[in-house]
Amino acid sequence: MNTLLDNISTINSMILEGKALEAFDQFYHEDVVMQENDNPIVKGKVANRQREEEFFASITEFRGAQPLNVTVGENTTMVEWHFDYTHKDWGERNYTQVALQEWKNGKIIKEKFYYRS
Q1: Long-range own/partner contacts, residues 41-48 (CB < 8 A, 24 or more apart)
Q2: Which residues in 21-37 are b (16+ Cβ under 10 Å) and which e?
Q3: Could you tell me if 83 and 6 are in contact, meaning their C-beta atoms sit under 8 angstroms apart?
């Protein structure tokens, strides 16, 4: 069985390889709930995958991403990311974000993103 560190490292590598949606399909639970800051929670894998697809389709220029720190606890991982891209609606974005994941049976069941908006 893979450890949480193995799993989150694989996800991070896949994101850097441009395979974020593939990572989502492989590592996210069917009942996943996701939330951006204090925005409304999005429930379920189907709804969250659609949200992810829309986000990636809206990036007009990608300049880079880098995981800065990874932390692993009991059924929990956290990744501090730096992102630099241009979004068709939001313009240039260059920021640091923390993603907090809760795991259940080897899959992410809850994920919340923290960043300055």
Answers
A1: 48/24
A2: eebbeebbbeebbbbbe
A3: no
Which residues have CB under 8 Å from 70's CB, separation 6+? 5, 8, 9, 12, 77, 78, 79, 80
pLDDT in tens, the chain (117 residues): 479 999 999 999 999 999 999 999 999 999 999 999 999 999 999 999 999 999 999 999 999 999 999 999 999 999 999 999 999 999 999 999 999 999 999 999 999 999 997
Residue of 111, 91, 89 whose CA lies nearest to 101: 111
Q: Which residues pair with 108 in a beta bridge?
A: 28, 103
